[in-house]
Amino acid sequence: MPKSKSAYSVAGRKEKLDTHIIVVWVDNEAGVLARVVGLFSGRGYNIESLAVAEIDQKLNISRITIVTTGTPQVVDQIKLQLKKLVPVHKVADFKREDKNVIFKEMALFKFVGTNGKIDKAINACKKYNAVILDTTNRSKVVQITALRREIDKMANNLKKYGLISISRTGAVAMTRGEKVFK
Amino acid sequence: MPKLFSGAEIVFKCLEDQDVSHIFGYPGGAVLPIYDELKNHNSVKHILVRHEQGAGHAAEGYARSTGKPGVVLVTSGPGATNVVTALTDAYMDSVPLVCISGQVPTHLIGTDAFQECDTTGITRPCTKHNWLVKDINDLAEVMHKAFEVATTGRPGPVLVDIPKDIQFQKTLYKKFKRKSKSNGASHNNFSQDNIDELVDLMSKATKPIFYTGGGVINSGPKASELLRELVYTTGFPITTTLQGLGSFPGDDNQFLGMLGMHGTYEANNAMYECDLMINIGARFDDRITGKIDEFSPKSKKVHIDIDPSSINKNVKVDLAIVGDVKSVITSTLKTLKKSKANFIKSNKQKTSKWWEKIQKWRSKRSLDYISSEETIKPQYAIERLYELTKDKDTFITTEVGQHQMWAAQHYKFNKPNRWMTSGGLGTMGYGLPAAVGVQIAHPQKLVIDIAGEASVLMTMQEMSTAVQYSLPIKIFILNNEYMGMVRQWQELLHDKNYSESYTAALPDFVQMAEAYGCVGIRAKTPEELDDKIIEMLNTDRPVIFDCLVDKQENCFPMIPSGKPHNQMILGPKDKKENKITGKGRTLV
């Protein structure tokens, strides 16, 4: 090993990364998203996707859903660091493989081309709760809800049917059954 | 009709309700309404600094020496950006600060107005929380919340940004109702089971060690008393971090000295070999652990901390106890006395081999250095300073670098809140303004900034503050003309390429002292050192003491980068002896 010239220790071995979905309930106030996102960038955590909106107008609460990857130690840190932020009320953490949690993303696809081609595309979309939102002679806008990798796949496969524009959200999550995360 | 108060008046009402007696600040356009109001509030004394960074560090010194939050008042734009270093420093070392900054009027925010900057954006990562007050009706609540956030749990800095128009607007002020003092207790999250487990581990350990940090000091003076009781009751050895110095008497036999990169041989080896490590209020910083994969491989680790995010951050522990140090030690002592009344007796035997080993490490005398009769060795200067001031209740601040480590190694502290140093951020220029803050809080006490000539030049302007308020601080400069720690790393790791670490054209510190209107003293030889120190101590005015020390001296012992605790480099004296005896070279 070459002699270290650093005043800091060398990096240890790399551990396996897991994908987690972190859900954060926050006061909907100015700068709160910047606090959460700044914490991630400042401490070098990943953000794969992010979804945020107010869920309770009376109590002024927003729900932020963040998909992230990290070692178990890093995921623990993410939760604990988030809990230290003053506007954060609670933090939930789910593994992507967790069967008791529903994860969904939404995507809007715009197809332009002949009707025949577009129909084929729409057929392919059907298993993902396709809703046609706009139709013209030469185009259609379709909404689907699915998992991230399913949308990835669709986005790739439908190019040949005239898919020219994609807009998608980050994942949102909800537990199955009666249970609510406290 | 009830009386209406302006934003500026409300700021002072809040400060009064929070029992703030001193604020450190610098005026400017966006805080003028607050400065205008100052004259009406005699209980709040304003200390005018010479640079906003100085205000921040002075408030830190004030806070760390009193346990009360330090308050800073700065203007918008450059006023706010100048204080960022101090806020970050306070954040890293868990010092409670409340910084009030002026902002351009609300209708100009976002227009790149004169002296505008995104203060809350800039300070977001270096405060526990910050607020931009856009509605006068929120001001009082925000101010009180700011004090609460700064002082509860793990303390830290907060910032309240107040636009100028809000300072003029008027509203009602509701009398503040102080919540019952809840600092530590409300953050306790441990059970009797945790304590039982800890006591069980303690009773089984044959090679235990306490590793304690700044959390003990932040928990209040009572926590230090309890720690002493715990250490004496168990008979275990104890080592403290840089920030923990003073929580346990530095001259006690159970004290192994500071641990870490420049810690003692016995402390670091004990950390490496122990079978039970009890971390109280320290955070496994990288200067402490060295190579993390080989950090104390054979021990069960217990971590007591008020901040849950400190636990398992760097080092995985076997037992985590989340709570205020004072509360946790109180419970532990109670359980210990109840369930293991004979602990100390049964324990003495169990740990006697361990103590023998520690004595062997101790006999290396790792802090020794080769003394000289011609030049002043920096370690000798600290030793003499300690000997000549130890009977006084002395407060020590430092800058950052070799002198800081020598001070930590050779100055022995017996009480908490007497040692103010920038550990986490390592801010050169911390010590002089911090000394100003300490002296403000303790006007009758001896306050010494142990400094390096490079660090002290970074905030030298605050001498003017010291003179203005007749603060008899003593700036004790170990002058080696080098950025000593940089030079040391260059010598050891960069083939003696002393790139830019020598300061040519240093000022004459004695003349400089005179120019500031204080006293300059210079010591050149070991022979005259004591007399000069005594002269300094007898001077009831600010003093700059220019102590010319050996330029080549390195700070040992030292754990080199990427190495575990048991592979320390010892000083030249040890090497010399090894040459003669030919033993123990493997450790060098």
Element-by-element helix/strand order of chain A: EHEEHEEHEEHEE
The CATH homologous superfamily name of the largest domain in chain A equals ACT domain
CATH class term of the largest domain in chain A:
Alpha Beta
The shape of chain A, in one word, is globular
Fourth-level CATH superfamily of the largest domain in chain B: TPP-binding domain
Largest sheet of chain A: 5 strands, antiparallel
Average pLDDT metric of chain B? 94
User: What structural category do the secondary elements of chain A indicate?
Assistant: alpha+beta
Biggest β-sheet: strands ordered side by side in the sheet of chain B: 3-2-4-5-7-6
Number of helices of chain B: 25
Number of domains of chain B: 3
Secondary-structure-derived class of chain B: alpha/beta
Largest sheet of chain B: 6 strands, parallel
CATH secondary-structure class of the largest domain in chain B: Alpha Beta
Regarding quaternary structure, how should these chains be classified?
A: heterodimer
Percent in helix of chain B: 25-40%
Number of spatially distinct domains of chain A: 2
